[in-house]
């Protein structure tokens, strides 16, 4: 029987990008970090500088990798644990809506279901419904629905929890994306524990306790 460690997972959203400023969906598309995004990643790195991370993981999107690299520069522990970069930790794929205006996209996605804004969708339904609604609204039906999304992200979680080098009490870092972070919090927090209509800030830190297959969110968007 495989015995998994109990550890703290720090999940960081990448630094601000130009698409963030322009209010555009990025998903599997990408735009560079702004200077504010770079400076914010430095500050996040300083906040994490004294934490001994035994393992680090990162989405393979350039904005996440750049953020990880900047955080890396602030933390000497990274010298002995280079990040494992994987597409498992990517943002949701938005299909036809990649690069389009967020508000217009969420209207097209949620309005047929009586929820014309992202906040309405999250309040009335949840993150999984948001994914299913988007695939339904995508004229090419290429956007990831909840089943497709979690099939991918669960492989990433398995990659982390099955790390044989982790021991009880260790700290692990993951740099990922806004909606992926929201999806994790939506799935692994108590109902009403956090206001998920508030998106995680660029460079913010969310903490989770991982105990085998059990995950509990303890802090969100700090």
From TrEMBL:
Domain of life: Bacteria
Pfam hit, one: His_Phos_1
Active-site positions on this chain: 14 (tele-phosphohistidine intermediate), 91 (proton donor/acceptor)
Binding site for substrate: 13-20, 63, 91-94, 178-179
GO CC terms, sorted: cytosol
Site positions (Transition state stabilizer): 177
Keyword set includes Hydrolase: yes
Signal peptide segment: none
Any GO molecular function: fructose-2,6-bisphosphate 2-phosphatase activity
Stored PANTHER family: FRUCTOSE-2,6-BISPHOSPHATASE TIGAR
Protein name: Phosphoglycerate mutase
Species this chain originates from: Fructilactobacillus sanfranciscensis (strain TMW 1.1304) (Lactobacillus sanfranciscensis)
């Amino acid at each position: 029987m495989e015995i998994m460690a109990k550890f703290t997972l720090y999940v960081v959203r990448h630094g601000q990008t130009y698409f963030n400023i322009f209010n555009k969906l990025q998903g599997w598309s990408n735009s560079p970090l702004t200077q504010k995004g770079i400076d914010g990643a430095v500050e996040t790195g300083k906040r994490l500088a004294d934490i001994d991370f035994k393992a680090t993981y990162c989405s393979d999107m350039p904005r996440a990798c750049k953020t990880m690299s900047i955080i890396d520069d602030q933390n000497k522990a990274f010298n002995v644990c280079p990040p494992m970069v994987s597409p498992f930790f990517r943002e949701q794929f938005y299909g036809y809506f990649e690069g389009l205006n967020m508000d217009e996209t969420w209207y097209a996605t949620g309005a047929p279901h009586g929820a014309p804004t992202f906040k309405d969708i999250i309040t009335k339904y949840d993150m999984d419904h948001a994914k299913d609604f988007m695939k339904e609204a995508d004229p090419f039906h290429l956007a990831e629905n909840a089943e497709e999304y979690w099939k991918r992200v669960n492989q990433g979680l398995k990659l982390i929890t099955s790390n044989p080098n982790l021991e009880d009490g260790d700290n692990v870092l993951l740099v990922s994306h806004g909606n992926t972070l929201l999806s994790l919090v939506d799935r692994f927090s108590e109902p009403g524990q956090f206001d998920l209509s508030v998106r995680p800030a660029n460079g913010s830190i969310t903490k989770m306790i991982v105990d085998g297959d059990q995950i509990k969110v303890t802090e969100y968007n700090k």
